[in-house]
Amino acid sequence: MPVRTNPSEVSSDDLRELVRGSVLTPSDAGYGEAIGAWKLTAVHTPSIVIVPADADDVAAAVRYAADARLGIGVQSTGSGPVCQIDGMLVVTSRMNGVTVDPDARTATIQAGCTSGPVLAAAHKHGLAPLIGSVPSVGAVGFTLGGGVGWLSRKYGPACDAVRSFNVVTPDGCLVHASATDNRDLFAALRGGGGGALGVVTTMEIDLFPVTTVYAGNLLYPASAAAEVTQSYARWVAGAPDDLTSSVVFMNFRPSPDVPEPMRGQSFLMVRGCWSGDLAEGRRFVDSFRAAMPPVIDTWQEMPFAESASISSDPAGPAPVVATGGWLTGLDGSVAAIVAAGTFPAAGPPPVIFTEIRHLGGAISRNVTTSESVMGNRDQQFLFHAIAITTDHSGRLAATAGQARLGEALSDHRSGGTHHNFLDGNARRRSTRSSTDPAQHDRLAALQGRLDPGDLMRYGVTHAN
Length: 464
Fold this sequence. Notes:
This protein is of the alpha+beta class. The protein contains 16 helices and 17 strands. The radius of gyration is 22 Å and the shape is globular.
């Protein structure tokens, strides 16, 4: 039977009778708003959109799509699906509840909830979730991709903190996945990427006793990038797990929302978050300040609820193009390559910033105890290059610039990738390089069993 993708072949009337949420086709008001992703470079043309009110709606939609031979893509209010969708798009934005159990130190999060409300709800009880640097990113999608953030070296990646998932599998059944139920699916969802094995409707996660942190940025002239980076690499080699940090090659936009001293300028930044004893954290950062005095210093004590200010990444939708991967190490030669690629001598910079994160710590240490398929956990340095484009030609130029940077770094790359730092088809094809190689065949077999009709064809693919 041919796959239906033409809107005229899909009748939405039956589905409207089955669900409490919204069902939209291209001719309906609200369709354009519903399909918009946080990454404005993701353009979708689904034949039908469902905005479910609950898990029963999701199950009904999945069964309908299977009967109609429509592929299914999933989008929360975060970064959007892996690749362009022309079948059914399930938009989980109405399912945005979060509840915190302060005694158990857990949170139960619905599929469309972003990280910001989870952080705010947990902070009221002196607790924190393992989130990334952008609170507007979908909490579930971030976690399915592994999830590295400002508490990762102390507590591990976000996927390690998941206690359970509720998932609508491609046969339209709602199942519970945990360490005791559907363990193969539980492990696969913890770091295996999103949108391939079913539609997660809720997840329960552990929370951690973090309230106030010492965090911020040290800024240096772009010309000092190699020297500062080498000093940074020596400094973090002995860093306690309380510190999660990065070195950032940053081109600030000439925009009114950028502070005047930085507007339109390029800097090398040492960025981080200390989640242990605050006085000890100050002393540890002071040791770097003494060796490398910055021109601007924003490190300070802050509530972890305000941790978005550490990176100050765009909170709203943006035309972002991203790439990244794991490095074999960090030294002066890596710094010189990244500086040349991010701070070109002539012409516009190909990327807004390139960040090299220092990880390891609990990410590496937890690998023997975590039921997770996230790969590359023994690696220490993960780079991420971001471009913001305004038109098609700008996107092509940004993609080419990122490719040149990646090629220049080829001798310093481990071959490993991280789902959340890739875009589009690159993320879709990244399973072998983003997940545990020993688990890959099991992932492919699980995907084949759960989705023999390739219903979830827009997510990551394990069968490659």
